[in-house]
Design brief:
This protein is about 40% helix and about 20% strand. It has about 220 residues and is an alpha/beta fold. The chain has a five-stranded parallel β-sheet with strand order 2-1-3-4-5, with helices on both faces. Strand 8 and strand 9 form a beta hairpin. It is globular and about 55 Å long. The relative contact order is 0.11.
């Protein structure tokens, strides 16, 4: 998903990425981007401008998206001030590209971020179906268990997103701590509490491990179906 208030730039970036084999959606504002996410589901990656008057700016959009997901983001902007670049990379973005840019470089950076972060393991849709019992509405911060809607906190939603993105593979506790609470002192007990709370909401029983499996001293795996 590409978000920029310049339709000319959107067309340029879309053409570049489509020619490289990507499927692309576009939005001219942060508000339109969020509406698109609610209608179509989260993309694999977002490319976001910072200044998009008169509404929500790029940092506000990033903060909103990262409340309920760990969506990889690349900032694509004309701002080349050091403090802005530091703020973006420190808080929101996997990469930062300044305009004007070389199309080939953009494609290379997109591929590099996706290789490092990993592709989402399930079909992207407004409601992400895991199996006949479980589905997840990430923008709505809720799980759907046998047709019943269960509210999730933003942290629970983001934790579930990270685990599902790597379904079938073990995600280390250290990685989860860095992505969930990047500015806090690592606290594995805090992570265990959130995993326990999430399990209580999506598993059939407190002792069931149908979806989330623990690996003592290492991390957690979301079981792919």
């Amino acid at each position: 998903m590409v978000v920029d208030d310049s339709r000319l730039l959107l067309q340029m970036v879309e053409t570049t990425l489509v020619n490289a084999g990507f499927e692309v959606s576009t939005a001219v504002s942060g508000e339109e981007a969020l509406d698109l996410i609610h209608k179509r589901g989260l993309p694999h990656l977002a490319i976001i401008d910072i200044n998009m008057p008169p509404g929500m700016d790029g940092f506000e959009l990033c903060a909103t998206i990262l409340e309920f997901s760990d969506l990889p983001i690349i900032m694509l902007t004309a701002i080349d001030e050091e403090n802005t670049i530091i703020e973006a990379i420190d808080n929101f973005a996997e990469d930062y590209i300044t305009k004007p840019f070389h199309p080939g470089e953009l494609v290379a950076r997109v591929r590099r971020v996706l290789r490092r972060i990993g592709d989402f393991a399930y079909t992207l849709a407004p409601i992400t179906k895991v199996d006949d019992q479980l589905a997840v509405d990430f923008p709505g911060s809720r799980a759907i268990i046998n047709g019943e809607s269960i509210s999730l906190t933003p942290t629970e939603t983001k934790l579930l997103y990270i685990l599902m993105r790597s379904a079938g593979r073990t995600v280390t506790a250290d990685f989860l701590l860095r992505r969930l609470w990047p500015r806090d002192i690592p606290n594995r007990e805090r992570l265990r509490v959130y995993v326990h709370r999430l399990r209580r909401k999506i598993e059939a029983s407190p002792t069931d491990r149908q979806y989330i499996t623990s690996h003592r001293g290492v991390g957690y795996t979301f079981q792919a179906n």
